[in-house]
From TrEMBL:
Gene3D superfamilies: Isochorismatase-like. This is Hydrolase. It comes from the Bacteria. PANTHER family: HYDROLASE YCAC-RELATED.
């Protein structure tokens, strides 16, 4: 087995996929509010460590809705 190799923040990025308002209510294994708070906390960590962060949506103008507003605010410079 390979020994554990610690992540290097210079070789890391954060990808946040489909954290849209309409999809939060579909999360079943954790309360939606807790899930949202966890996502926002991950965003805070990405900011703290200056990690490149990519936000994606599947269909922002459709039934899934836009990205969670708080997440958009955290990364207001994201395209």
């Amino acid at each position: 087995t390979k020994p554990y190799v610690r992540l290097d923040k210079n070789d890391a990025a954060v990808l946040l996929v489909d954290h849209q308002a309409g999809l939060l209510s579909l999360v079943r294994d954790i309360e939606p509010d807790k899930f949202k708070n966890n996502v926002l906390a991950l965003g805070d960590l990405a900011k703290y460590f200056n990690l490149p962060t990519i936000l994606t949506t599947s269909f922002e103008t459709g039934p899934n809705g836009p990205l969670v507003p708080e997440l958009k605010a955290q990364f207001s410079d994201a395209p």
